[in-house]
Structure formats: structure tokens, C-alpha cells
Amino acid sequence: MPLVNNDLYLKAAKADFTNFQQMCRLEWHDLKRWYDRNNLQMRGLSESSALRAYFLAAANIFEPNRAAERLAWARTAILTDVVSAYFQRNGCAPDLRERLSTSNLTRDRHHSLSRVAIMDWTENSILHVLQELITDLGKFDNTTDTLRKAWKDWLMAWTAEERSGPCEWSTALLLVRTIEVCSGRHSSTDHQLNFWEYTQLEGLTSSICRKLASRVLAKHGHRMENIEDIDRQVDLEMGELAHHALQSCNGIRKLTGQTFLHVVKSFNYVALCSYDTIDCHIYKVLLEDVI
């Protein structure tokens, strides 16, 4: 093993990881400023939850040249948590959900202003952050429209009965679509030519995340009689997703397949690990200096 197990490679690895940590700390500093500027703590999201969202993004998309995708993932995940917390506090009544989704998506300024006028202060502030995020991430009109559509799909996935938590499957699809838009891959002709493959990956992602949501409920004390069967199904579908994403996606771009896999892996990680464990990992990976 002397060709790889030597002090030179160890020193290079430490230097590389230190550079990664410095990059992450700078990005988190900027993300924290965005979090503070928009008073997201007052909207029901703790700073530690925001840091977890960034950690999940950085742990999967860690390349320096993919900062746009990484930060889009983090900011979108943070905002879904904010909106989810608001819905859980106020109840996801159809009129409330419709006000947010319609005001968010309309391109008619007068129509938007009339909608905003009937909202309360919290709804207005959430809408402002959401519109700002879509504008920042959408570089061109067509991608902005795609992001609006993705957010509307996510908002409309909520129902009045879902008071215990967000639609995890819908959040996963929103993250995938956002990452793909920010990468520039979403508008490529590959998606149009391989619609069936893309739809299959979306279906697997949705199915796995639905089951993982049940796993999270069981972790938090809810009685789940068939948890072992759910775990078995998740394992099988994760294998199928990995196969489609990494091996059998002939036409779809490899990075797009990996995006689906990264997002689902992050949901699986959260389903299996406690917040204390995740926070410990965050400290060791992002905050603890390499010796």
C-alpha cells in the first residue's frame, strides 16, 4: 500500500478537505445572512434547521463549481420548512393554500397586488421571500416559469388533513426540479426526448419518500405496525432508483439521474438519523478543523 498510504497523499487530502470546509463556511455565512435578513426564525424555522438543510445539500453536491445548485437546494429546502410550519400552525385550508399559490404564480402585477391586499403580514412576508427566491434562481423567463410551476405543484400538494407534516414526496420533487433548473439541464432536449425515463425516476422518488415519511412518523413515536415491510420496500426501490439513475439511463443525463439519487438519499438519511446525530455529523464535517 505504499503507493497510496503515505504522508504526501494524507497531506493533500487534508488540504483538500480544509478547502471544502472553508467553502462551506463562507456559503453558510451568506446563507445565514439571507436567513436573518428575511426573519425566518420568526417564521418558525430555527437556525439549526437551516444549517441542516445546507449540510444535506453540501454533503451531496460538494463540487466547488456547483455552488448554484447547492445553494438553490438549501434555500428551497429552508423555505419549504417555513411554509410548512406556517401551514401547520394555521391549518392548510384550501383558501389559504390557494392564496399563496395563486399570488406566487401570477404574472399580472395588478392581480397579484389585489391578492396580497387580503393577506396578513406573515403571509405577505413569506410570499415576498418566495417571489424573491424564484426571481433569483430563474435566470431566464422560461426557467422562472418552471420554478413557479414547481412551487405551485408543491403548494397544491398540501391538503387540509395533512397537519402533521409536509408532503415529503412533493418536497423531494421540488428540490430535484429546482436543482435541475439552476444547473441549466432542465431545458435541455434530453428531457423532451426521454420523458418516460424522467417520469420513471420521479415515480420512484415519490414512492420512496412517501414510505420514508411513514418511517419518520414511527421514529417520533407514532405506531406503525408494518415498519419492517416499509423498510424492505424502501431498500428494494432505492436499489431500483440507483440502477436507473447510474446504469440504465441511456438518454437522460447522468447528472440528472444523480440529482434524483442525491435528494432521495438525503431524505433516507434524515429518516434514519436523529437530529442529535445529524448535528454531530455537521460539527465534524463542517466545523471541526482537520488536524
From TrEMBL:
It comes from the Eukaryota. One of its GO terms (molecular function) is magnesium ion binding. One of its GO terms (biological process) is gibberellin biosynthetic process. Gene3D superfamilies: Farnesyl Diphosphate Synthase. Transmembrane segments: none annotated. One of its GO terms (cellular component) is chloroplast. This is Terpene synthase metal-binding domain-containing protein. It comes from Triticum turgidum subsp. durum. The lineage of its organism: Eukaryota, Viridiplantae, Streptophyta, Embryophyta, Tracheophyta.
